[in-house]
Design goal:
The structure holds two protein chains of two kinds.
Chain A (H helix, E strand, L loop, with lengths): L4 E12 L2 E13 L4 E5 L6 H8 L7 E6 L2 E2 L5 H11 E4 L11 H10 L6 H14 L15 H13 L5 E5 L7 H17 L3 E5 L3 H4 L4 E6 L2 E7 L7
Parallel strand pairs in A: 3-8, 3-9, 6-7, 7-8
Antiparallel strand pairs in A: 1-2, 1-4, 4-5, 9-10
Helix pairs in contact in A: 3-4, 3-5, 4-5, 5-6
Chain B lengths: L2 H14 L1 H39 L3 E6 L19 H10 L3 E15 L4 E9 L3 H4 L4 E4 L4 H5 L4 E4 L1 H8 L9 E4 L2 E9 L14 E5 H9 L6 E6 L5 H15 L10 E5 H44 L1 H9 L4 H37 L8 H27 L3 H6 L2
Parallel strand pairs in B: 3-8, 5-7
Antiparallel strand pairs in B: 1-9, 1-10, 2-3, 2-6, 2-9, 4-7, 5-8, 6-7
The chains are: A alpha/beta, B alpha+beta.
């Protein structure tokens, strides 16, 4: 099977004027469709930088990145926006929902940038995405009327609404207590198992990483360890 | 994102901060309303001058005796005595297109009645003056050609003089007033005409036959002005030139010598006044426009705050697929909607204030379509101009930095 993600000698150097910081020093790996990958490592190890490159939020200094077989490492900012919109879904630690905006409108947001979608169609797809994360009865609620776990589920619905092939999550349980963390991980797992969505998740908690199928550990801008999870946790 | 969606998103964003939006728009509202009102008052003033000229007769040519004098000594205007009633007769005979004509001679003196006295202008005129000025009588009649020929001591009072001598609204027809100790019979009172364009009160006057002024009051042979009213459709330029040529011949002026008279149309006098008024209007509108610019700076300020506040929102929008141009348009449209909404309310407020000024202060104020269009256009331009910098700042944000912004 062709890998969904394929990176070769990926490097990223931040130019901070006098100092140059090498966040990634040459990373090569493949991710096959249907994998659930956890990226771990200490702060400054380069896992977040790697995640941003995978998410097309940034471009590598050198190296190649093939997403679904297409080289996206050299695309223009505008083309990258299109890739983010159609092929990638994001979930963040801080939820990043629009305040004073209903759940269903938050979920519709990516569709607004997707081009021609009728308003009724947008509403229907957003509603379905919210039902898929168990929030079918919270469509009109505003973020401040939802618990942290519910807000993160709205964010997951938002990431799913464009039917992306790749779901990226940056510390999605970082702001949640243990119980809600397990609930949210359960949703990720279901999406991964039932729908076959490829998930790449950044976390520094070992037990969260164990909900996946593979864990990649970063240190000093390099992959230090890349192994399959032997006994996967089931939420 | 379609333009309609961009617009909807902008309106939603503005409504999320209703209070701030209202206060920011207030700057535009005040600016636009101020411009509208200032221009309305200026335009109204010009229009009322035009109206008064119309009411005084737009087809009127005034001949006044010029400045005279010999050698280095120059006397004031009207000092020469070469203009006569015969000149008026000659103009009527020889210049085609003349409808009415009235030689005039004014003096200022005390008018005495049984109940009181009043210092006013005594206007000598022919019987045709009433027709020239389209001036109806409130009581009695204007004097006749016969009164003029016979230099009878009859007087037609302006309403102000009547009010002073006989009490407001009285009908003094048949009463006697004394002018320079000579008895004049009051044969009529003129309807009130109000202030002239130049400011003097047209009703503060007594009109008597010019022959009476010449023979009974001043003892002179000349007149100081001739008022000519043209037939409808006669070009006043041609008429002015023909009158001037005729008077030069009659006064035996050598080629190259200065005219001893002055021929002007009322419109010429009005245009001077109108241009003064419009200068004033531009000045006031200019001052008001400063507040528009201040309003625009307010919008820019709030948009900059808004961009900073919503940095994470911008990051999120970029992450889910917004292009830089989408973000740019979103903030630009927000700023334009803000300024246009302010502009629209400002126009409505401007209409209201102009109407109030007209009702309460009795000034004429006219809101013209061009002033409305201009204010709206300026409001839109301010939205674009002052919104562009914040919008560009938003569009240039790096998605990662924006998402991480605290």
């Amino acid at each position: 099977m062709n890998p969904i993600i394929s990176v070769r000698d990926l490097t990223k150097t931040y130019d901070l004027g006098e100092m140059q910081v090498q966040a990634l020093r040459g990373v090569s790996l493949d991710v096959a469709p249907g994998e659930f990958v956890a990226l771990t490592g200490p702060s400054g190890s380069g896992k977040s930088t790697f995640m941003h490159l995978l998410g097309c939020l940034d471009r590598p200094t050198a190296g190649r990145y093939f997403l679904n077989g297409n080289d996206v490492s050299t695309l223009s900012a505008r083309d990258l926006a299109h890739v983010r919109n159609t092929q990638i879904g994001f979930v963040f630690q801080g939820f990043n929902l629009l305040s004073r905006t209903s759940a269903v409108e938050n979920v519709e947001l990516p569709l607004l940038y997707a081009g021609k979608t009728a308003a009724a169609d947008r509403r229907q797809r957003a509603t379905e995405a919210l039902k898929a994360v168990g929030l079918g009865d919270r469509l009109g609620h505003h973020p401040n009327q939802l618990s942290g776990g519910q807000q993160q589920r709205v964010a997951i619905a938002r990431a799913l609404v464009n039917n992306p092939t790749l779901l990226l999550a940056d510390e999605p349980t970082g702001n949640l207590d243990t119980k809600t963390s397990v609930e949210v991980m359960g949703i990720f797992q279901r999406l991964n198992i039932e729908r076959g969505i490829t998930i790449v998740l950044v976390t520094h908690e070992a037990d969260i990483a164990e909900y996946g199928t593979r864990v990649i550990t970063f240190r000093d801008g390099l992959v230090r360890d890349d192994s399959a999870i032997e006994r996967r946790r089931i939420a | 994102m379609s333009f309609l969606m961009t617009f909807v998103v902008a309106v939603k964003a503005l409504r999320r901060n209703a209070m701030r939006t209202a206060l920011t728009a207030l700057g535009m509202i005040i600016g636009v309303a101020a411009v509208i009102v200032m221009v309305a008052i200026g335009t109204g003033a010009s229009a009322s001058i035009q109206n008064q000229i119309q009411s005084a007769g737009s087809n009127i040519v005034m001949v006044t005796a010029g400045s005279g004098g010999f050698g280095p000594v120059r006397q004031g205007q009207g000092a020469v005595t070469t203009l006569t009633a015969e000149d008026a007769d000659a103009i009527r005979r020889e210049v085609p297109g003349v409808r009415y004509i009235s030689p005039g001679l004014n003096t200022r003196t005390q008018v005495v009645a049984a109940a009181g006295n009043w210092n006013t202008q005594i206007q000598g005129a022919s019987a045709e003056l009433a027709a020239i000025r389209s001036w109806p009588a409130q009581f009695g009649t204007f004097f006749s050609d016969e009164d003029v020929t016979a230099a009878r001591k009859v007087a037609v009072l302006g309403s102000v003089v009547r009010d002073q001598l006989f009490g407001a609204g009285a009908d003094p027809t048949g009463e006697i007033v004394r002018i320079k100790n000579q008895p004049f019979q009051v044969i009529g009172v003129l309807a009130s005409k109000g202030q002239a364009a130049m400011g003097q009160d047209q009703d503060d006057t007594v009109i008597v036959p010019f022959t009476t002024v010449q023979k009974k009051l001043m003892g002179v042979q000349h007149v100081t002005n001739i008022t000519v009213s043209a037939e409808n459709g006669v070009p006043l330029d041609g008429l002015t030139q023909q009158i001037a040529a005729l008077l030069r011949t009659r006064h035996k002026l050598q080629p190259g010598a200065d005219d001893d008279f002055l021929v002007r149309t009322l419109e010429e006098m009005a245009s001077v006044l109108t241009s003064t008024t419009s200068t004033m209007t531009y000045l006031l509108a200019g001052i008001a426009a400063v507040s528009l610019i201040v309003g625009g700076i307010g919008i820019m300020n709030i948009m900059l705050v808004s961009v900073t506040e919503r940095t994470r929102e911008i990051g999120l929008r970029l992450a889910v697929g917004a292009r830089d141009v989408d973000v740019l348009l979103q903030f630009l449209v927000e700023s334009i909607v803000l300024s246009l909404a302010g502009g629209a309310i400002g126009i409505a407020l401007g209409f209201g204030i102009s109407y109030g000024v007209q009702r309460v202060m009795q000034w004429s104020a006219m809101v013209t379509p061009s002033a409305v269009a201009m204010s709206f256009g300026v409001a839109a331009a301010i939205g674009v101009f002052f919104g562009f910098y914040p919008a560009r700042k938003a569009a240039r944000l790096n998605p990662i930095d924006a998402l991480r912004y605290e």
